[in-house]
Amino acid sequence: MSLQARAAIQEHAEAHATLFERAARLMERAERLESAGTPSESARNRAERAKEEVEQTLAALKSSFVGSGGREKRRAFDEEIERLYPAFKVYDEGR
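Above: the chain sequence. Below: its structure as tokens.
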């Protein structure tokens, strides 16, 4: 089950690579500015919006992947997201 979840997530990430790359780039920039002592609210807001966009696409993928597969598929998906993309939090759609 875990291999299926990993394959689905990786395929999704490849299909939406620009979205993932944009989120990572904006998150890194906001963190870099904060670390340098010059935090930027606009940089942080852009990073949060990009992160939320990725999380929304992952939530839709999770819903599709889990389908009627129940708890085991949901757990496998959640574990793989945590392993592959720990910066993103994915909740069930409608939550």
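The two ends are 24 Å apart (CA to CA).
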